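Give me the 3D structure for FdrA domain-containing protein.
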Amino acid sequence: MLLTNRINDLQAVRMSQIMMGTNANKDILDNTKLLTDEAKAASPNDLMIVVDSDQSDIMDQVLPEIEQFLEDLSSTGSEEKAKAATSWQEALDNLPEANMALFSIPGEYGAAEMETALKKGLHVFSFTDNISIEDEVRLKQMAHEKGLLMMGPDCGTGIISSIPIAFTNVVVPGNIGVVGASGTGIQEVTTIIDRLGNGVVHAIGTGGRDLSDKVGATTMKDAIVALENYEPTDVICVISKPPAKEVRDEVVQLLQSITKPVVAIFLGEKPIAHEGKVYLAHTLEETAKIAVDLANETAVKKNYFEAVAKSTTTLAKDRVIKGLYSGGTLAAEAGMLISEALGLEGLVKKEGYVLKSHGYDVIDLGDDIYTQGKPHPMIDPEVRIKKIQESAADESTGVILLDIVLGYGAHEDMVGALLPTIKKVRESRPDLQFVATVVGTDKDPQNYQKAVQRLQENQILVAESNAKAVQLALSLKGISLTEEDKVVVPYQGTTIEVPKASSKVMELLNSKPRIINVGLQSFNQSVQAFDGKSTQFNWKPRASGNKKMIKILNALEEHAEQIDTENQKVMNKIKNAQPFLTDVVPAKRVIPELNESTKTLLHAGPPITWKEMTGPMKGSVVGAAIFEGWATSEKEVIALIESNQIRFIPCHHVHAVGPMGGITSANMPVFVVENRLDGSKGYCTMNEGIGKVLRFGAFSQEVIDRLNWMRDILGPTLSGALKQNKNGLNLSVLIARSITMGDEFHQRNFAASLNFLREIAPLIVPLSMDEQDKQDVMKFLADTDQFFLNIMMAAGKSIVDCARKDAKGTIVTTLTRNGVDFGVRIAESADEWYTAPVNVPKGLYFTGFSEENGNPDMGDSAITETIGVGGMAMVAAPGVTRFVGAGGFQDALAISNEMAEISAGQNPTWTIPTWDFRGTCLGIDIRKVVETGITPLINTGIAHKEAGIGQIGAGTVRAPLACFEKALEAYAQSLGIETN
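Predicted structure for FdrA domain-containing protein (980 residues):
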């Protein structure tokens, strides 16, 4: 918001808005006619930069300003940011003893996050506003039942154990405890108490609606009971905006029932007497003075009114007072006093006005109408500057009444920010009078005495309280205020048995707060400056701001223990897998569907029809049909398909996987990998090498000749070699060895392919076969760097098919794509596919090609990412990041760290030296994917979108989030959770 102001100061900018892409912020842009198509498409975690200017190259000025601002912000808070958490669990790990969460996040997400904090046993202090009344009632009831305090929403001020929280002044400790349904009301009372020589130990904010009929003063009652039981508190001070009568009476009944003396102010009331043991004040200043007398065990006076010195300046009768307040409670008090003095209609709450009568206006500039998409006027002077200019332009304005609120969170020099405007309007309106009140203490960062002195030096009248400032403003019109004496009359109501205080609330009051600060980083300053503890939680909306997903995630937390138990079973199967390469055989020997009378081809990804297939997959189909002898040309193959003589089945449906197009036919040799943990088997065709190959859609004679050689020579040779090893080849050991040598098993299989050759060569040498064939096989294996990829894929399939058996939970058991759709399966829903449109890979293209030529991603090779390698283990092969256009080692490290965020654990079987010997990622959890918005990164080859051209590059691609959202919704429904 401050950044927006900086950009608006640029001469060529007519208007700008810079804000996160939440729905509420988009509404703000829409209302100001700034909502562009790009902004409409933004997610809540995107920064929208919208500028209205006649200058076409304005962004050349704007973007450097933004970058500099963000860089300055990053450098000033680098130490805190280094420790900052990005999740609740991380925040609690950083501060295990935390007992409070301080919120300053967008209101549209606030309720759900506050509920999370309450469920984690944390008291809530919510500076966040725009929470529905229904949510406030629910959250406060939940907090009450859990023995916690829900302070807010829209709670701007608090002092807990002498620690200033949010927008708060530095007040000396004392024996007065304050409970306030008002922020600046608390600030006014506590700072006057400080200046009178006493102090405050606790000031518990409740939020402005706490005494409404719907909320019922839940927080105020709990806080009063706590202060009654907090021994160092000798006096309880209650501050409230205009309350509902029934609720006000309930609060008074509780106050009459406790043992400690009480002073209370219910703004809008003009009490004529004190009731029983509750002293009722008319103004905030009177409230503070009564509290100090009670704390000092001095008799309460009948009248605390002090007349201000009469002004020598007298304004004309037709001149009016305009109150321009940053504090809502101060505005309400001013409106009340002016209305009483002049016999006006009383307080209103309309479009920011608290008084609007006969030209007399008092405006709360902190009202939502002024702060939507903009900083609060205590932080930013812009809205008040404009209102000063507007009021000065109105010839009827005689006095402008202002508050200057000091303290933590407030503008570092509001006096300095407003003075230039005041001086300028006085040039044309020398008769215009300014009257100010300063809320603060000498211990505040801005210093109370210095602020007062600077105002007075500029001929601004300054009063020592808001009530006196109003009195001074009225005196300029020759109007005097008075207060009647008040005596104590008996309380006519009944008392109640005071409830017991919550042990958790008492623990909060008896120790310094330990705070998880969720939002504005600056709110840590006051806590840490006064020896409180806080940790920063750099919050962003869960589930990318998708409220439906947020609701589902919240509901699933009730089942977390059950889900984690089920997930652990799946993860144990993956971790304890025993994949062995046992044979290479024609696919039809192990896949019965390929022996049926109908001509059958297997393909990669979830189900797809010929019509939907992209170019390279169609090219692979043509090549496979020609290889099988079903046709001799592309035209003949298409005729077979159009006459329904060829059927298509996903590889995954028959325990197989296939790279890129994944097309597998009956006579293609496949690796057979057995997972000896339970006997599950996985099959995959062999790697053809590089160049024009079937998997990328090529089907020339060169491709067919290679397939024939693999069928007739390579496959039988490897089969014969493996048969000499009765136990088969232990792939887990080979994988563990190769990952330490720089492989990640999707884009880089160099070490694994050589390790495979090391194991298989001694078994090939003694085979009785043509020596030239033997030499050709050995050379092909030595030259084909990616040969092990297909073995890894078959191993992955055997691992996940074991893990999927009789499984439940939220662990992903399949990732795959067919060039049109990306498909996900999870443990819970077995064979059910959750699909979304697949993305086009980003990466490096061979000379002469670009992203325009690239086909959307395809292939079953993402089985590697499913079991935690490939893109999930990028740090194991940092060289790959350059090859796929993803940067260097730090980028690889960042990617693996990011992938760990969406994984349920790590696999100690396969450790990565360049990751401090951490295990590979284990168990992609759809809950974490949806919550963080981080989707698995997949290393992949890039095929040309036209059939027959083949590979044109290599890169990475992200799985689409929608797959995981669909899976999560279906999972929630399986638990009986309502998701609509």
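Residues 235 and 423 are 44 Å apart (CA to CA). Let me know if you want a second pass.
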